[in-house]
Structures
1.
Amino acid sequence: MKQQLPADATGLTPEWLSNALSARHPGVRVAAVEVLDATERTNHHLRLGLAYDVRAGAPETLFCKLPPRDPEHRARIGAAGMGSREVHFYRAVAPTISMRVPVCEFAEAGPDGAFLMLLEDLTARGCAISDGSWAVPGRLARAAIGELAELHVRWEAPERLAEVASWATSRRGKAPDFVLSTLRHVIDHCGDRLSDAYLEIARLYIDHHDAIEAAWERGPQTLIHGDAHIGNLFVDGDRVGFLDWGMAKIGTPMRDLGFFLTMGLESEDRRREERSLVRHYLAAREALGGRSIDFDEAWQAYRIEAAYGVIASFLSLVPPYDTESRRMFTTNFRARAMAALDDLDSVAAVRALLGR
């Protein structure tokens, strides 16, 4: 019988943690638990310190991921199924791939959007997680997009997609009124902080969001990370790791490639290397036996995918997402989006898509 999932730190008792860790560490007995750090971002994050009566190889610290505590935010995350998707990823997909992801000690989803994950404490391992002031250096990009290609090719066969379809299928619906109204607010009240290209993509999205969303989903279908920007990446030595799999879904591999290059790499490195990196990704796919994608087709999709940076970043301009503690990260995040829009002339690419 499954344990009831704790809703916050008070439920993370030594007894509960002993049971949760026992599948990977038989015989483990937790003696005490201490909350070393707590943050509220998209979800509720805890860094835990553990003492043991019997350690059985279990880690001294853990990263615990829970739904947000705010009821409205919790309901929104629950409706999106992000926690459940990430649990499914760690249970069914992570053990089958070679890309660097956090080690998962426990992952479970419950009713009404409840979930709990106990993950590797990356900071204790010496991994670097960006505060927004830096992004992935270009020298690490080739290996990282090669691993993305491996994920994409591994799951693009229909029989493999069928294995994850029950939780990874994302049905595109009408853009929520909340998104469109907030985007209008950003255009009207935050224009002095945004580039002309950013504002034009926002206007085009409001007027043509169905066509733009359809273009963002066009291409071969496979399992993708779905949100591979600098906030969801880490650097472990000379290797890029991928975390926060709550937006994993069946979609186009160009979303991962485009978002990683435009919103994960340092902009100067992207400008210098992006054409060769797109070619490298396509060659890696072919070497792995994946479906061939023409470079011109991929490049056009890449230019259009860059426009997604607007939708990924505009909420950072309004409460409750615009916070002092996150301002450096979100300012640099939008700056990368604006740089990519200008460098790739994404406005022209989107207008051509719309026949304008």
2.
Amino acid sequence: MGTRRLARERAVQVLYAIDRTGQSLSEALVGYLEILQDSKRRSHLHHFTVELLEKTLAHREEIDRLLTSVITHWQPDRVAVVDRQILRLACCELLHFPDIPPKVVLNEYIEVAKVYSGDDAAAFVNGVLDRIMHMKNNQRDEG
């Protein structure tokens, strides 16, 4: 498993903790940093995870609006907590990490969904992210 995949998984775990406990990002990161103590890849893993978390939380309203526009009759609080966090993180990467190819983002989060939520969730994540990628491509073509 690559360092970025592990960073994405850690970000899912931290966002899940924030959602379930109501902790702030800094509070949730304390537990995360304890997990990293033994990691040889700590600095790169930590940097990408924290950047991803900060951007996702900073743009959460925008991300949830996008998800609501893509998924008919979808409200963020009606999706399983882990799936919601996976979708938020993936959308953040698609919108705010232009150096990462969209297909990489899609594939990475499908794999994360398989690990944390199962094949049905992976198919759901795939469908949602595919729609978002197509929507972004259409906007770019029109703009």
3.
Amino acid sequence: MILIIKHCPTCDRSSDKVRFIGEFCEVCTAEKLSKRTPGKAKIIHCRRCGRVKGPAGYQNSSNELLETVLAKEICNSKCKVRIEKISEDSALLKITAPAGDDSVTFEKGIELKMEHQICQDCYRKSSGYYEAMVQLRGDKERVAKMEQKIIKFVTMRNGFISKTEEIDNGLDIYISDRLMTKNFFYLNRLVPKASFTLYGVKDGKKVYRHTYYLNLDE
């Protein structure tokens, strides 16, 4: 069997020394793809909570999330990105990109632009947004315990409490998400009195605020 040895037309490397992708060696192929890869990328942060905007909305920053964001920025998610080093204004990336029927891996240094916006949750918090109100009534100690239970449930699910108001016989809690509030009562086997108030229209549908009344002395 005769072994046919290729020579790269760009650098003259031979196929018995390096892998070839089509007519070119992987080194030259990687260099070409590196030159075509943008040298700048943008990362959007919320200026209040510090979360990063990714495909699924704002999330806590992590290397995995940043790699997903950068892959989208520089190659529309057609490549895989691994962060080697990163700072406020630059990053060194290891990029695996498709090349013909194969792929090549190369390192690329890029400039980073940190863009600061305000995420929807922070905007809603600052504007006092809420979808549900829970009216807790009864013994102060029971009300306080139930309040902490609600706060823990909501924050663990990335919701927020807009405000709380103390009244003579209890507490009113304003919560960001009505479905989350409903699930709290369902999962804790509580049966409050519920009422609904129309407060707007979204995408042609009526939107209601939910009010739940729970007397802890009953």
4.
Amino acid sequence: MRLEPFLKPNHALIITDCGDLRSLMTQLAAAAQPQLPDSSQEELVESLLERERRHPTSTPEGVAFPHAMLPTISETLIIPALLAPAVDFGVRGHPPADLIFCMFGDANEPFSHVRLLARLARIAHSPGALDRIRAAGSPEEFLAILVTEDRAHG
């Protein structure tokens, strides 16, 4: 399953003003909420935070995959974000995350959600991909790099 159909120009973010996990989740939910009219911003934030409490989504590479699935969501959204400074997800042995792939999906379509998460993970583990993605200087460049990385994976 390709990412490109789920990557929207106004959803690629470069965030320079969040200091903690709640602030990050609030900004991600605020970016997504206009596309998810049946879900409140607070519901989206709490769903992301609850998922992190159960099982944090950060990786040893400084990437995190926060995600939430709700029955009120009918359209899957991916909100990629570059952070400066990075945000601590509270996992011992993991550095703070500076690259975020946030996803909101339909609770009734868990397999699609898992397939997209797997695709994101494969892209993140491709040689040199994280360096190329982190080098983006604008949201437009960030999105273009993600699309290029997605297309390189067939």
